[in-house]
Each structure stands twice: as C-alpha cells, then as structure tokens.
Amino acid sequence: MPAPLRIVVEGVPVAKGRPKFTTVNGYGRSYTPKKTQNYENWVRMCGVMAMSQAGLSTMDCGLTVDLEAVVQIPSSWSGKRQRMAAAGEIHATKRPDLDNIIKAAKDALNGIVWRDDSLIVNLTARKLYGETPKLVITVERLT
Question: Please, which residues have CB within 8 angstroms of residue 141's CB and are 6 or more apart in sequence?
C-alpha cells in the first residue's frame, strides 16, 4: 500500500459559504461566494502539487481522510491564555465551523485527489489553535 498523501494548505482555513442568489435577465441564478471560490482554488492547487510530487493520479477507491484545521491563536489574548491554546488546553470553538471547512476541502479536491468525495468512507477532523493557520489533509487508500 502506498504511503499516505499529505496536503498542506497554508493560510487561514475558510468555510464553504452558502450559495448566493441573483437575477440575470429575469432568470434566477445561484453562485458560490468569491471567498469560497478563491479558497477552493487554493486548496485545489495545493492538491495538484501534492499529487504531482507523490507521482499519483486521481484515486478511485475507498479512502480514509484525516483533516486538521489549525486556526490562529488570537493575539489579543493574554500570554497565559495563548500558551494554554497552543498546548491544546483551550479548544477552538469560534468560527469557522468545522463541517463547512470539511465541505470546502472535499469539494475542492474532487477530480484532483479523488474521483468523487463519495469514495471517502472514513473521515476524521479536528479544529485546533496553532501558531500558523493551515489545513492539513492526509489521504490513505483502503485497497
């Protein structure tokens, strides 16, 4: 079995935004917010680079995915509270929502890392505080 694929997406994790609606020439239309589009493009690019470096092609089998969203420790916090957050003693319970971060990452990597996100049969995810915000996605083949 090949080694797990590790994708590191530097920067603040972004939650998948709700679709927006507008009218064009009298017809209703929905679209993805620009912030979500930009973030999904960045995740997609990081996925392409990781796949290329690992010499892999799009996976088409059962997968286990581990997702770790690291959010910035607020600089306004006291030194003691910042140290506690870095040690994992304070949980990252503020926005963005973890499930929406997962949605953005899964949608961005469709057709790049996996053929479709329906291939993910095991998923673990966590959101925690850290010095450098990022999203770390580890993908393992099950077959």
Answer: 1, 2, 59, 61, 62, 63
Q: Counting beta carbons within 10 angstroms of the beta carbon of residue 89, is it exposed (0 to 12), middle (13 to 18) or buried (19 or more)?
A: exposed
pLDDT in tens, 79-126: 999 999 999 999 999 999 999 999 999 999 999 999 999 999 999 999
Question: Alpha helices of the chain — where are they, by DSSP H?
Answer: 34-54, 79-86, 98-109
Which domain, by its residues, includes 79? 5-141
Beta-strand pair 134-141/5-10: antiparallel
Query: What CATH number corresponds to the domain at position 38?
Result: 3.30.1330.70
User: Is residue 143 very low, low, confident or very high in pLDDT (cuts 50, 70, 90)?
Assistant: confident
CA atoms within 13 Å, Cβ hemisphere of 82: 10
